[in-house]
């Protein structure tokens, strides 16, 4: 997948240098080393390109990063998170560049992983919503997911994401609309931020010469009211970072009202309001949430040209349920074996422990 944890890694990597090139693996490579990908390679290429800290994308990048690859793209060094990534036979994919001193590390984002997101989709639980207590079922899942016969894995397991003001500041542009910019307002759940959202925002961005796009994100309970089931899969804090990481978005309203009111339009001095081709659910009183911008003649419906929806992503996961569960357990076992091997190498020989007495 591509989620805000990846965006945060790319943000940190970009801060280490001047130009960020991101290598994205093919579906074939991922299936071989990790398990079935959730997004196709074409979707992932486009998703990564839409992240605002990325300068260039290299499609079909080799799974094992070599010095040859770094030299080919004139890179001084490569960056990865402080979790490990292993080949199908359990080798560190960054071994060569580490030995050459051309490897840097950034912090992995606590509380988000493809493993956790997949689990939320499979469990149909609302425990991840911002005001929900963790159910015993989700707690049991969180405790066991990423566990394998060898014990608990520090990377593949599930942990809770804790939003901070610092994290929002790091992701936000901090820019206010400038004179001559067209303020465009879009609203929705933007759940499991995906290629459908990117295509829509890219089209909206093209509507003006100097666009300033504000994305209004609805509260979890509001999204659940109109989407049902256990939607949103990502809570409001997580969706905020996902949308802020997109290069087409200038500002986010965290917990926007469902109806686009006259007050909201005046407050943000909105010139244009856009919505995709997905169905617009009426407000709780049965009214059209877009009646005010329509009355003002500033409402536009935009066809993103993409048929991917959050529902379709969940469907992909459910279809491959057994494969994903097997993937997570296999990945965890491989990483634990690697950790154990590292511990044994680091341990002093018998007789030298405890000062060698």
TrEMBL record:
Keywords: Lipid biosynthesis, Lipid metabolism, Nucleotidyltransferase, Phospholipid biosynthesis, Phospholipid metabolism, Phosphoprotein, Transferase. InterPro entries: CCT, Cyt_trans-like, Ect1/PCYT2, Rossmann-like_a/b/a_fold. It is an enzyme of class 2 (transferase). SUPFAM superfamilies: Nucleotidylyl transferase. It catalyses: phosphoethanolamine + CTP + H(+) = CDP-ethanolamine + diphosphate. This is Ethanolamine-phosphate cytidylyltransferase. Its EC number is 2.7.7.14. GO terms for cellular component: cytoplasm. Signal peptide: none annotated. Ethanolamine-phosphate cytidylyltransferase that catalyzes the second step in the synthesis of phosphatidylethanolamine (PE) from ethanolamine via the CDP-ethanolamine pathway. Phosphatidylethanolamine is a dominant inner-leaflet phospholipid in cell membranes, where it plays a role in membrane function by structurally stabilizing membrane-anchored proteins, and participates in important cellular processes such as cell division, cell fusion, blood coagulation, and apoptosis. Residues 1-118, 186-277 form the Cytidyltransferase-like domain. GO terms for biological process: phosphatidylethanolamine biosynthetic process. GO terms for molecular function: ethanolamine-phosphate cytidylyltransferase activity. Pathway: Lipid metabolism; Phospholipid metabolism; phosphatidylethanolamine biosynthesis; phosphatidylethanolamine from ethanolamine: step 2/3. It holds the Pfam family CTP_transf_like. Belongs to the cytidylyltransferase family.
């Amino acid at each position: 997948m591509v989620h805000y944890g990846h965006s945060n890694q790319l943000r940190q990597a970009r801060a280490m240098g001047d130009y960020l090139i991101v290598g994205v693996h093919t579906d074939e490579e991922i299936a071989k080393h990790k398990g079935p990908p959730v997004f196709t390679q074409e979707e992932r290429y486009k998703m990564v390109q839409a992240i605002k800290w990325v300068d260039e994308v290299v499609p079909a990048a080799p799974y094992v990063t070599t010095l040859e690859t770094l030299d080919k793209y004139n890179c001084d060094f490569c960056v990865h998170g402080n979790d490990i990534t292993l080949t199908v036979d359990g080798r560190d994919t960054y071994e060569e560049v580490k030995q050459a001193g051309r490897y840097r590390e950034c912090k992995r984002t606590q509380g988000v992983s493809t493993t956790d997101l997949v689990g939320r989709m499979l469990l149909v639980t609302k425990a991840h919503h911002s005001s929900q207590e963790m159910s015993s079922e989700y707690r049991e899942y969180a405790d066991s997911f990423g566990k394998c016969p060898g014990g608990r894995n520090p990377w593949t397991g599930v942990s809770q994401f804790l939003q901070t003001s610092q994290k929002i500041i790091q992701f936000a542009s901090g820019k206010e609309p400038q004179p001559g910019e067209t303020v465009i307002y879009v609203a929705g759940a933007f759940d499991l931020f995906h290629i459908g959202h990117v295509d829509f925002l890219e089209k909206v961005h093209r509507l003006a010469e100097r666009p300033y796009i504000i994305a209004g994100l609805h509260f979890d309970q509001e999204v659940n009211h109109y989407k049902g089931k256990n939607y949103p899969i990502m809570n409001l804090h997580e969706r905020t970072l996902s949308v802020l990481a997109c290069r087409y978005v200038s500002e986010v309203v965290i917990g926007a009202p469902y109806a686009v009111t006259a007050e909201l339009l005046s407050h943000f001095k909105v010139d244009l309001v856009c919505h995709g081709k997905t169905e617009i659910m009426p407000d709780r009183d049965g009214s059209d949430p877009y009646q005010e911008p329509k009355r003002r003649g500033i409402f536009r419906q935009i066809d993103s040209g993409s048929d991917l929806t959050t529902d379709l992503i969940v469907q992909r996961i459910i279809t491959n349920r057994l494969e994903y569960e097997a993937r997570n357990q296999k990945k965890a076992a491989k990483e634990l074996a690697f950790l154990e091997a590292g511990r044994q190498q680091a341990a002093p020989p018998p007789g030298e422990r405890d000062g060698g007495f």
